[in-house]
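so im writing up the methods section and need the Choline monooxygenase, chloroplastic record in one place, dumping it here so i stop losing it
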Amino acid sequence: MAIAGTLALFRSPKTHGSGALVSYSPPAFGSLRGFSSWRPSFPRQSPETRRLTAAHSLPRLVDAFDPKVPIEKAITPPSSWYTEPSFLALELDHVFSSGWLAAGFTEQVKNPHDFFTGRLGNVEFVICRDANGDLHAFHNVCRHHASLLASGSGQKSCFVCPYHGWTYGLDGALLKATRISGIKNFHQDEFGLIPLKAATWGPFVLISLDKDSLHQQNKPDETVENEWLGNASEILSTGEIDSSLKHVCRREYTIQCNWKVFCDNYLDGGYHVPYAHGGLASGLNLNSYSIHIFDKVSVQRCESASVDTDDFDRLGSEALYAFIYPNFMINRYGPWMDTNLVLPLGSTKCQVIFDYFLDAHLVDDKEFIEESLKESERVQMEDIILCEGVQRGLESPAYCSGRYAPSVEMAMHHFHLLLHQSLNKP
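--- predicted struct ---
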């Protein structure tokens, strides 16, 4: 369930078509009424010139957002952060390639030989447990001619490449290379799968795409918890995130918006709920809404409205919405927990994976589950309409800049501060 809102952005510079930069000088802040007289000019540039210009402009785009300005005075990030393909490439390299990322849930690799696959940007990965129950993660790419090795999820005793039959153990070792008689200077032990770091925390499987992870060992859970959650680890690990909940189902959505639009929508402190989610708003006491900011996490809480205990009630007494930077959300309410994992599919498209978990004593209550998922689906459809509308607005030449609502959009501002910090890492 996303508690979320609209975002507003300062466009500098604007891109058009295949990435050509639109050259303009925006009006000074405070004089936006004069913006209607501005018209973009599109310089004629070769594809190579456009590519180089875009690459050289990225530092300027990053610094167009000033993290030192307090939220009461701050202007939101430029809309180019949400529309420029080269900016997404920068994010994949700086935001997603360091630190821990949620990849799945522990029930997917509960037993020896279990595995599942995933993708983030251009990284294809497979996570599995070997015969001894040890957790592994690898680049899901055959070392022979780059075929994807595994797909989906399930159980395997080994990974056999569907292209030429090269076979790998669940520990990544190359077991068999077919038809290589006559090959020179080939050492089988040097052609195992390329490893990634993997770990578990509570009911979640985490992965790290750090470029230096090739020869690193997996870390203890306590270290992973601190690295992933920072100073929010205690509040989330003391009863809020329950590993005993049972996975009920997964739903996936492809949304025509930048991945950050979905995150911003989640982080507006319930701002949009009374306007866009009438059904949800009727079940919440929005006057009780609170927001707590930690170093890598923001937590939103809201009490439920008074309800007749005889009525259908999936929200319980309080809803908690935890955002874990950069792209994972945990929603806890009543007997339910659902998670939202947002993955960029392009500069203007993302995939959101919802996993639903439920108290064990209710997993056989089909009517309750069906009604709960129906309500959740309605909220998701309302949010998709919002997010896709925001994306179209971000791409409009009429949109210049926006502001934060300081009393409710602190978590969104915090997200942007963390993005700016990541994007400035060497």
